[in-house]
């Protein structure tokens, strides 16, 4: 999972934009790159993106807010995504998710007070034959039970 | 000694990376010369990490292997499963689309060619565009993403469309719960998808391709990107495909977590850098698709099946199947099931045989209650419908759909009212917002199911009516098909929707 590399400067934002201008339909790759670079899509990027692509600021904002992936603020140091989809539910994924949230005192998308872990829902990781599934900073984990989740959270410093 | 340890996400999720590292460390300690190949998964997920050791030309399988068992594995004292090909789950399959997955090194072009890769493309290069499309039409291949539209007809529309720029777009936004075949083939045999896209380009006159992969699949994205680079380096992609005068190149693009982008028109909007809002049809994407140009939008499995059709001939492929469902389908058996995984077989196998004989029943050992086929928009099939043969029309006739062929098994502890509520909740979260029946209907659906749960018997009629409206009035399958899981749950499992006060009395 991308880590915030400090405050976004105008120069770094311009550099990310410039890297993607040659693409057809550059906006999504550009936003992904912003998030990779800064840990979120900074508000300060909206104006320069709109100017570079000759679209309205509202349209840029509309795209950022439409997709679940894009954050307007950085996440915790680690992101744990827990699958909520049907195959995971069939083997207790919902119970696992509820227990995890309750243990941390969080709601979905919440971050632990020490900033270590953000818990997010995900709808299918394609690990439906080894459910319940989770993803920790881009790394997949299958057959997650409460013990496995406890280890994950401990390692992440939650 | 060659040792195969899958790099497939499911294998990794069950510890394959640790096993591979343990093998490398142990081999080094012993001074053994061991070559570790990170192959795709053989598809028997309950046996992952499934390790194969090749000695004297024979591959013996072991699994599931833990890092602690690695010394025994190298000693040859670990109990073996024998050859993968002899394991009943595998032996019963007909592998056409998945023929190479798990067998080869996914990123070795030499391996790919040694196992039939590029034979189809070379044949296609000697054919006219019209003949290429005719071959696909003759194979009977239908869209594997769920809609089941004949692939050849789609290609023909694009071939005949005018214009200098056309596109091949691969829909790899495999968001349906219970499905992972796209992911497995991209991670396990990426060149077959590339080859299929190049053939699609030759057949339609398109010179540019995009694979839109969901961001939830970082491993698949990594493998596909490496494969595209390798294919470009080998001249399979570029200004002259395999030295011919035909140009074709492609790019991998990453989605951003919107389920609705699996719908082809919202996928196109997303690729263009817009919100993933569904477009009204017509115009068909085949005529006005990506950036308004004629575009083939095909699912990963459809495109990945094209090479074998050209390698073995349309007749060979069409020889498998049932009725208008021709060829084979990589079925994904998942959820609460003993033997989950990928099972490619000719259409026509009864659902019950898939669940009970091949899947071995539930993992929990409890009786099967329901099976959701076709993802979150698919119907919950009760055990009484287990004789339904696996085919597009056959499932349609039973009020269901096969979709992307995901089969999710639930045992008798499943609360079908809860599952119906989840279907509505999911639709509400993922609705693109363009049409009212989906955007508002899904929210009202959750509320109405909550009323039923509170014991309001009148709410059942309202839910039924609401589902009718969503089915008839929604712009795409998200709002239009959410009634499938909801109504199938309500119809087949009425006890779960019974008046809770009555039940208490």
From TrEMBL, chain A:
Q: Which Gene3D superfamilies match?
A: Glutaredoxin, NADH-quinone oxidoreductase subunit E
Q: Is Iron given among the entry's keywords?
A: yes
Q: Name one Pfam family in it.
A: 2Fe-2S_thioredx
Keyword entries, A-Z: 2Fe-2S, Iron, Iron-sulfur, Metal-binding
Q: Which cofactor does it need?
A: [2Fe-2S] cluster
Family indicated by similarity: Belongs to the complex I 24 kDa subunit family.
Q: Write the protein's name.
A: Formate dehydrogenase subunit gamma
Organism expressing this protein natively? Albidovulum sediminis
Automatic annotation (TrEMBL), chain B:
- What InterPro entries is this protein classified in? NADH-UbQ_OxRdtase_51kDa_CS (IPR001949), Nuo51_FMN-bd (IPR011538), Nuo51_FMN-bd_sf (IPR037225), Nuop51_4Fe4S-bd (IPR019575), Nuop51_4Fe4S-bd_sf (IPR037207), Thioredoxin-like_sf (IPR036249)
What is the superkingdom listed in this entry's lineage?
A: Bacteria
Requisite cofactors: FMN
The keyword Nucleotidyltransferase belongs to this UniProt entry's keyword annotation: no
Q: Which SMART domains match?
A: NADH_4Fe-4S (SM00928)
NADH-ubiquinone oxidoreductase 51kDa subunit iron-sulphur binding domain: which residues? 417-462
The family database entries (SUPFAM superfamilies) matched by this protein are listed as: Nqo1 FMN-binding domain-like (SSF142019), Nqo1 middle domain-like (SSF142984), Nqo1C-terminal domain-like (SSF140490), Thioredoxin-like (SSF52833)
Q: Which Pfam families match?
A: Complex1_51K (PF01512), NADH_4Fe-4S (PF10589)
Which key words tag this protein in UniProt?
4Fe-4S, Iron, Iron-sulfur, Metal-binding
UniProt KW 4Fe-4S keyword: yes
* Protein family (similarity comment): Belongs to the complex I 51 kDa subunit family.
Q: What is this protein called?
A: Formate dehydrogenase
UniProt source species: Albidovulum sediminis
């Amino acid at each position: 999972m991308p880590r915030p590399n400090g405050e976004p400067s105008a120069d770094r934002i311009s550099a990310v934009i410039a890297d993607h201008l040659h693409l057809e339909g550059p906006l999504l790759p550009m936003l992904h790159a912003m998030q990779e670079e800064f840990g979120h899509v900074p508000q300060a990027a909206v104006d320069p993106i709109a100017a570079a692509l000759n679209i309205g600021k509202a349209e840029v904002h509309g795209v950022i807010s439409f997709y679940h992936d894009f954050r307007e603020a950085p996440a915790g140091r680690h992101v744990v995504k827990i699958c909520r989809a049907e195959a995971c539910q069939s083997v207790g994924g919902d119970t696992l998710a509820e227990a995890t949230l309750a243990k941390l005192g969080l709601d979905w998308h919440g971050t632990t007070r020490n900033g270590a872990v953000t818990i997010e829902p995900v709808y299918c990781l394609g690990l439906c034959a080894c459910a319940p599934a989770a993803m920790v900073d881009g790394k997949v984990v299958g057959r997650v039970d409460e013990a496995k989740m406890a280890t994950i959270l401990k390692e992440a410093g939650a | 000694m060659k040792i195969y340890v899958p790099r497939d996400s499911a294998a990794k999720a069950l510890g394959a990376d640790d096993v591979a590292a343990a093998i490398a460390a142990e081999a080094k300690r012993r001074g053994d010369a061991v070559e570790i190949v990170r192959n795709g998964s053989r598809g028997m997920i309950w046996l992952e990490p499934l390790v194969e050791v090749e000695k004297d030309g024979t591959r013996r399988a072991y699994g599931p292997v833990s890092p602690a068992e690695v010394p025994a594995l190298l000693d040859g004292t670990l109990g073996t499963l024998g050859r993968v090909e002899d394991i009943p789950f595998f032996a019963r399959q007909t592998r056409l689309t998945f023929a190479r997955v798990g067998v080869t090194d996914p990123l070795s072009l030499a391996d790919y060619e040694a196992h039939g890769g590029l034979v189809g493309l070379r044949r296609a290069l000697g054919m006219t565009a019209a003949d290429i499309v005719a071959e696909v039409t003759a194979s009977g291949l239908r869209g594997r993403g769920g809609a089941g539209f004949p692939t050849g007809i789609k290609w023909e529309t694009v071939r005949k469309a005018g214009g200098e720029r056309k596109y091949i777009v691969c829909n790899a936004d495999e968001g349906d719960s219970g499905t992972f075949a796209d992911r497995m083939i991209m991670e396990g045999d990426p060149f077959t998808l590339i080859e299929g896209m190049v053939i699609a380009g030759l057949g339609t006159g398109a010179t540019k391709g995009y694979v839109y992969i969901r961001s939830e699949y970082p491993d698949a994205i990594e493998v596909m990107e490496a494969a595209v680079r390798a294919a470009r380096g080998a001249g399979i992609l570029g200004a002259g495909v395999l030295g011919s005068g035909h140009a074709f190149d492609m790019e991998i693009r990453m989605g951003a977590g919107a389920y609705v982008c699996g719908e082809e028109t919202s996928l196109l909007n997303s690729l263009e850098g817009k919100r993933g809002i569904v477009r009204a049809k017509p115009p068909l994407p085949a005529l006005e698709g990506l950036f308004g140009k004629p575009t083939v939008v095909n699912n990963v499995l459809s495109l990945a099946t094209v090479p074998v059709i050209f390698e073995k001939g349309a007749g060979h492929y069409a020889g498998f199947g049932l009725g208008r469902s021709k060829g084979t389908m990589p079925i994904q058996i998942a959820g609460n099931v003993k033997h989950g995984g990928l099972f490619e077989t000719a259409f026509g196998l009864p659902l019950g045989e898939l669940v009970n004989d091949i899947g071995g029943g539930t993992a929990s050992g409890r009786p099967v209650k329901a099976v959701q086929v076709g993802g979150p928009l698919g119907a919950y099939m009760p055990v009484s419908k287990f004789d339904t043969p696996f085919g597009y029309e056959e499932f349609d006739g039973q009020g269901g759909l096969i979709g992307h062929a995901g089969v999710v098994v639930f045992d008798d502890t499943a609360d079908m009212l809860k599952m119906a509520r989840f279907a509505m909740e999911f639709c509400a979260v993922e609705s693109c917002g363009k049409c009212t029946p989906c955007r508002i209907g899904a929210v009202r659906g959750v509320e109405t199911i909550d009323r039923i749960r509170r014991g309001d018997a009148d709410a059942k009629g309202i839910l039924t009516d609401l589902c009718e409206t969503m089915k008839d009035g929604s712009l795409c399958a998200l709002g239009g098909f959410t009634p499938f899981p909801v109504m199938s749950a309500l119809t087949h499992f009425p006890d779960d929707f019974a008046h809770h006060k009555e039940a208490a009395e």
